[in-house]
Amino acid sequence: MDFSELFRNFPELTTTGLTQGAIYALVALGYTLVYGVLRLINFAHSEVFMVGTFAAMWTWNALGFNQNLSPSGVLISAGVLIAGLLAAVAVSSATAVAVELTAYRPLRKRNAPPLAFLISAIGASFVIMEIIGIATDRAPYGNMPELVSNKPLFTILGAEITPVQIVIVVGALVMLVGLDWFINNTRLGRGVRAVAQDPDSAALMGVNKGRVIGLVFLLGGVMAGVAAVFANLKYGFTKFNLGFLFGLKAFTAAVLGGIGNLRGAVLGGLLLGLVENYASALVGTQFRDLVAFVVLIAVLMFRPTGILGESLGRARA
Amino acid sequence: MLLEIDNVTLHYGRIKALHGISIHVNEGEVVALIGANGAGKSTTMRAISGLRAISSGAIRFQGEDISKVRADLRVVKGICQSPEGRGVFPGMTVKENLEMGAYMRRDNAAIAEDMERVFTLFPRLKERIKQAGGTLSGGEQQMLAVGRALMGRPKLLLLDEPSMGLAPMLIQQIFNIITEINQQGTTVLVVEQNAQQALSRAHRAYVLETGNIVKEGSGADLLHDPAVKAAYLGVA
């Protein structure tokens, strides 16, 4: 236990933790949205995120930019970044909807038991991971231009703030607020909440359940696509199995906040990011990944419903 | 004929819940379906609204066979239901619940009008307009479920046990409202365990026993039928 390390670097650990947590939160929303409506853990969601990271990188390469050639000027950089973002969002959401159509919908039509969905989810996850694994020779892929600077811009209380961190935290915030608004204030969003709270009653109101299910997969995919680009900016590389650990952590974040609860997923993501960073300062970075799962087990033991506890159903969020 | 249930059977797994029942509802009527617990009343309702698929027979609405139409599309055709157990959305406010009732409508001005009409029928709901559905009392939830079904401007209103769990005075009140809704032009099919109230309000009624229709007639006739009296009205 090295408390001096924790205290000395506390501001830095906090900003890093929040940045990482913001990405977890975006991915966690995908788990929580689908769970809220289907009571299903979509384990293939980790791959929905992973394909987004490749989609963005390949788009940047296709536009002619790579680790040796970064776009010059803020405007061009932003344009290139957004092109990658659109590609990631498109590929991730298409993957999410494809998983729903091929791995889950046929099972639902046959009234399959929950275990069948779980196995189908794991199967879909492996299929996607292996396809990308084969396509990329299972090698890490980091041929990425510098689109947002990683050099400190200013310091707050001793913590250096970089443009990458600002883009990630602000971008995530915009997405989170937007999703929250959509779910609470639009007709379609109300349909999502209705199916989450009482699927039979929702049908009696004229809500098309199939469409709502497709919509939550789509929304989860959009969030994962944005998260994928942010992960690229932060880590600078990706790999076919990147989704595995990342997905498990985002899932942990969703459970931590209260699975099925949108605001819970955000809270859980940020908390997990912070806890991971504080703990790795305290007990060593080699334990970083362990921390997430200790947290998961502790939550399941002491507060199985998560911090906010309520589902998309009960909660107004 | 607005609704015709023609020799319908329905299974839960291997268990036959409806043994070929036939019921019809004419435009402008209040029709009651009475029977004991487990007789198949709610199952019949679920079959009409499409929450449960039927095994054989046909359900016709305005002459069209809707047996294979998805539940949400039957709402568009004009069948709205206040379900067994009320089915109020617990995390939505009273207002949002009512708006859900008009989910498939786009005529916002008329929706606002209908909401005012629901508040006139159930002033209590207006007092609770911002409260979450899950925090309402049983009686209030019942009002909300009926009001929400009305928000769909149904041609046929299905009410499943509207008196369930209500105090006697509230039961009286809710049946008064059913009569009023009917007089305003909505056709009603009501399932009830409270046979006394249902039969005295209904134009016609059916008695359901273990998945079979065993009697039908005018509400008044059944109310005075010795067998019905003995079985459902607690009179020897």
UniProtKB/TrEMBL annotation, chain A:
One of its GO terms (cellular component) is plasma membrane. InterPro entries: ABC_transp_permease (IPR001851), BCAA_transport_permease (IPR052157). It is a multi-pass membrane protein. It comes from the Bacteria. GO terms for biological process: D-alanine transmembrane transport; L-alanine transport; L-isoleucine import across plasma membrane. It is found in: Cell membrane. GO terms for molecular function: L-isoleucine transmembrane transporter activity; L-leucine transmembrane transporter activity; L-phenylalanine transmembrane transporter activity; L-valine transmembrane transporter activity. Keywords: Amino-acid transport, Cell inner membrane, Cell membrane, Membrane, Transmembrane, Transmembrane helix, Transport. Its main location: membrane. The chain crosses the membrane at residues 22-41, 48-66, 78-103, 115-136, 156-183, 212-231, 251-275, 287-308. Belongs to the binding-protein-dependent transport system permease family. LivHM subfamily. This is Branched-chain amino acid ABC transporter permease. It comes from Catellatospora bangladeshensis.
From TrEMBL, chain B:
Keywords: Amino-acid transport, ATP-binding, Nucleotide-binding, Transport. SUPFAM superfamilies: P-loop containing nucleoside triphosphate hydrolases. Residues 3-235 form the ABC transporter domain. PROSITE patterns: ABC_TRANSPORTER_1, ABC_TRANSPORTER_2. It comes from the Bacteria. Pfam families: ABC_tran. Gene3D superfamilies: P-loop containing nucleotide triphosphate hydrolases. GO terms for biological process: L-amino acid transport. GO terms for molecular function: ATP binding; ATP hydrolysis activity; branched-chain amino acid transmembrane transporter activity. Belongs to the ABC transporter superfamily. PANTHER family: HIGH-AFFINITY BRANCHED-CHAIN AMINO ACID TRANSPORT ATP-BINDING PROTEIN LIVF. This is ABC transporter ATP-binding protein.
